[in-house]
Automatic annotation (TrEMBL), chain A:
Originating species: Vitis vinifera (Grape)
Main location: nucleus
Function comment: Component of the general transcription and DNA repair factor IIH (TFIIH) core complex, which is involved in general and transcription-coupled nucleotide excision repair (NER) of damaged DNA and, when complexed to CAK, in RNA transcription by RNA polymerase II. In NER, TFIIH acts by opening DNA around the lesion to allow the excision of the damaged oligonucleotide and its replacement by a new DNA fragment. In transcription, TFIIH has an essential role in transcription initiation.
InterPro entries reported in the protein's UniProt record: TFIIH_Tfb4/GTF2H3, vWFA_dom_sf
Family listed: Belongs to the TFB4 family.
Subunit-level organization: Component of the 7-subunit TFIIH core complex composed of XPB, XPD, TFB1/GTF2H1, GTF2H2/P44, TFB4/GTF2H3, TFB2/GTF2H4 and TFB5/GTF2H5, which is active in NER. The core complex associates with the 3-subunit CDK-activating kinase (CAK) module composed of CYCH1/cyclin H1, CDKD and MAT1/At4g30820 to form the 10-subunit holoenzyme (holo-TFIIH) active in transcription.
Name this protein carries in UniProt: General transcription and DNA repair factor IIH subunit TFB4
TrEMBL record, chain B:
GO molecular function (one): ATPase activator activity
Entry keyword annotation includes Signal: no
Function: Component of the general transcription and DNA repair factor IIH (TFIIH) core complex which is involved in general and transcription-coupled nucleotide excision repair (NER) of damaged DNA.
Keywords: DNA damage, DNA repair, Nucleus, Transcription, Transcription regulation
Similarity annotation: Belongs to the TFB2 family.
Biological process, per Gene Ontology: nucleotide-excision repair
Keyword Transit peptide: no
Stretches assigned to coiled coil: none
Subcellular localization: Nucleus
Name recorded for this polypeptide: RNA polymerase II transcription factor B subunit 2
Cellular component aspect of the GO annotation: transcription factor TFIIH core complex
Amino acid sequence: MGRSAVMAPVPSKLYSDDVSLLVVLLDTNPFFWSTASLPFSKFLSHVLAFLNSILLINQLNQVVVIATGCNSCNFIFDSSSVPANPNLENGRMPALCSNLLQKLEEFVTGDEKLSKEVLAAGIGSSLLSGSLSMALCYIQRVFRTGPLHPQPRILCLQGSPDGPEQYVAVMNAIFSAQRSMVPIDSCVIGAQHSAFLQQASYITGGVYLKPQQLDGLFQYLSTVFATDLHSRRFLQLPKPAGVDFRASCFCHKNTIDMGYICSVCLSIFCKHHKKCSTCGSVFGQAQSDGNSATDRKRKTPET
Amino acid sequence: MPQVKIIAKNFMDMVASLPAMKLDALYHNTFICEAILRSLPPLAKKYILQMLYIDVPVTAKAMEEWVLADGFSKHRVAIDRLIQLRVFTETSDRKKETSYRLNPTFQTNLQKHLIYGGVLPREPMPSNITVRLPSLDDLEAYALGQWECFLLQLISSTQTEKLTNFSSSMMKVFQRGLLTQREKEAPRLTESGFQFLLMDTNAQLWYIMREYISNSEERGVDPADLISFLLELSFHVTGEAYNINTLTEFQRNTIKDLVDLGLVKLQQGRKESWFIPTKLATNLSMSLSDTSSRKQVVHKTNYLMHSSTAHVLSNHYIA
């Protein structure tokens, strides 16, 4: 979707505190959905109603949807783009439904084709890092339209497990979001928690939630995730009990909780290497096996 | 000074003061529900969304558990507003515990709106009939021109120039509070009148609308019908032509008044005639929302208005 519809300038007095830009990252991984407890079509009906409710509560709200596939990501909906049929109110049902669903279908078909050609390294995971990056680029463009713009936030609707090979890319996106002050909300609909998203929401000040009853998904979305950023100062939103801060090693992309760290660039390794693959610093000799774990961590490179 | 907020809020106060049955009847119209929803403070909007699919009353205590210490005043304002507009109904049980639930009419219609979207009672006319439709720029110029004419007549002390079709009694209603109306004395601009002239167009429009609606019963018009029509009008598409024959007689009479305020433009084809909503009309629902006080962006028209009224004033008021 190459369009960039700049919103017509609105007099500042009409701009209320709750004007929001919501970028939704929708997990479309067919491997996940084929085994999910909630059917994809039911999931979509909850999400579409939720998206419409965001557009309902403020005329200036904007919703963008990015599909996160196995091998690709793409925009499938933007409420600010000029509608083909001016009879239907901009971006609203049923135009919202038909536009989004059509683009979604095209996307899923295209993504599936890529699966046959490319041997997906992380079967089972979806390209979260890709869609996060696309969302942040879109938001940057919005920031540059001028001082008056909706307050952006990202909502990840994720079911696929984390792909450890995406660790570095996801963390980079998270820090970028943190610097731009864009909260990342996470709504995990898969069977397991997502360490990536726990960290994302924790670091950026978003909300992380794994709903217990998926057939009530709309209720979770409307009660928690519909809250605009201004109102969050006044409300008690769910906080996770603990955050899984485990990293992935840079050499094998495995999740580890104990490892070696380069003291120059802080790259993480699961076993001893002669030199750092990221910055090239040479490490000292490995200690014998009798040493404690803390000693191993204190290894410093010799330049 | 957050003028739009005060004026628009007063309009919603007026809506809230309608008798219960009339207000409930308003909520049968999904566009009214949407307009009311958009006019509420952010917390109230959120409460509506989260109560939308809940059929049982929720205790006030349960709702307060979500609120942080900082937010209690905002929470109370939101709840009070919801109750005032009869969107929330309040019940007390035997233990004197207060509970809230959504007004059932409002709830059903908003649910439908959410799933199916809203359908306006009229469709734009096909373009092969509406051949001389003005461009959006021309339409905006027309709207502001009409509005300026109206303002000129409003503050004019002499009734010799009849710039609009409003009756002189209607103009007197609008002028109440803005111009002194003393016998044997030429009308003069009051303090409120000066403030009015400095407000931006949207705020002025809401002020006039409020007067127009408050006066409607004296003219034999049901204020609820009028409010309903105005809010519905704000959801039409700017620049599109809608057939006059889709309007009731009362709505047709109202449209004539709205032409004088620049809210719609009337045009006639070979067989059909139609009305075209301008930006002034479609902005009505947008400016309804509770805005925070920000630096006022004074509309360009006001400067023109100010200079032209200064000219008029100098002719009439300077001793």
